[in-house]
Amino acid sequence: MSPRYWMITNRTVSTSKETPSLGESIARDLTYWVSEGGPLTSLKSWKKVSEKLFRQYLLQAADQFPLIRDPEEHEQQQHVTLFVHGYNNDWEDAVNRYRQICEDLYSPQRNLGLCVLFTWPSNGRLTSYYPDRRDARKTGDQLAEVLNQLYDHLVGKQKEIDPAHQCRAKTSVIAHSMGNYVLQEALRHCWDRNDRPMLVSLLNQLIMVAADVDNDLFKSGELSDGSAGDAIAQLTYRVTSLFSGRDKTLGLSAGLKHFGKRRLGRSGLDRNYPVPDNVWDIDCSTIISPDPPESVHRAYFTEPPVLDLMEQILKGVDRRELLRLELIPAIHRTA
Fold first, then answer.
1. Radius of gyration in angstroms for the set of CA atoms belonging to the chain, rounded to a whole number
2. What is the pLDDT of residue 251?
3. Dihedral of alpha carbons 95, 251, 277, 302, sign
4. Which residues have CB under 8 Å from 283's CB, separation 6+?
5. Quick check: 38 and 24 in contact, CB under 8 A?
6. pLDDT at 335
7. Residue 231 belongs to some domain of the structure
8. C-alpha span between 33 and 6 (Å, rounded)
């Protein structure tokens, strides 16, 4: 079996035989699903499998990626990417966004590899911001289980001497909105569980899209302070934050908190603090069209210039090269 779509979730599963679906509550255990196609918003198009079988399918798929031996060709190495959606997404919303990302960003033309959806019970109601925040914090513990398994697998692969058994895939994450809060909690748990390894790249690329987290998340700079931002910077080769001051959704988010800190996805990194060398941000305000079909908060995934930028970021193209290719707005040319 070679699945086309992949899903991990901590949502509860409905018991309805006529219209089964994934719900708005946190399940005790993660469940794993694969699909070969069909209407992805119907759970009947998905097959529930064990964690062991899911991992087996995923490893088999990654083993089909070409083995890149020449370091000069590393940008051609394919990815296994985890997509973590954000606040105010019911399961149907999350699956529709995932399908669109697979079609537009993980199409055969781009040749980036495959994408796995991690969906959590964001309740899909604007009035549920605080319940979503609590669910996101709890979900971080469960997502950490997935990242811990990945960490153990990658450490084992690094010990392989036989090139035929070495890892053929880069690992990456695209997190949107409050999905970044889920991820920061998960990476912090993963880092603590593994005794806070320094400079171990669990993730090759992390793209934080419209991140609903504090914009001083990385204020420890090059120092290690054991914070969530420290964990992200230590476990990731490169972190890229995509932000826009035009994001009205995150303006609402900041107003709800009263914490005194701006949102990373609306204001960019807080430059009053030192920033780790592998963390940077890009203001996407001018490459998102003036009147996008979706809100600016969601438009990153539908705007061709942003998708092209994401592709090059995932490939690991250098920042200066992205500037030269004019994929980054001119405002960053003096950065």
1. 19
2. 82
3. positive
4. 243, 244, 245, 268, 329, 331, 332
5. no
6. 46
7. yes
8. 6
CATH classification at residue 299: 3.40.50.1820
pLDDT at 333 (0 to 100): 57
Main-chain phi, psi angles of 79, to 5 degrees:
-115, 150
d(CA 177, CA 249): 9
- DSSP code per residue over 191-249: HHHTT--SS--SEEEEEEES--SBTTTTTTTTS----HHHHHHHHEEEEEEEE-TT-HH
Helix, strand or coil, per DSSP, at residue 11: strand
Q: Are strands 203-209 and 170-176 parallel, antiparallel or unpaired?
A: parallel
Look at the chain and report how many structural domains it folds into.
1
Distance separating alpha carbons of residues 187 and 145, to the nearest angstrom:
10
Alpha-carbon distance 28 to 17, whole Å? 21
Q: What is the structure's pLDDT at 120?
A: 94
pTM above 0.70, yes or no: yes
Cβ pair 180, 238 in contact under 8 A: no
Which pLDDT score is estimated for 72? 77
Give domain status of residue 293, yes or no.
Answer: yes
- Going from the C-alpha of 299 to that of each of 122, 200, 246, the distances in angstroms are 19, 33, 11
The predicted-structure confidence for 95-108, as pLDDT tens digits, reads as follows: 999 999 999 999 98
Query: Which DSSP letter does residue 155 get?
Result: H
Query: Which residues lie below 8 Å from residue 157, measured CB to CB, with a gap of 6+?
Result: 165, 166, 167
- Contact between 249 and 297 (Cβ < 8 Å): yes
Q: At what angle do helices 228-235 and 179-193 cross, to 10 degrees?
A: 80
Domain span at 88: 53-332
Q: Report residues of the chain scoring pLDDT below 50.
A: 127-128, 161, 258, 335
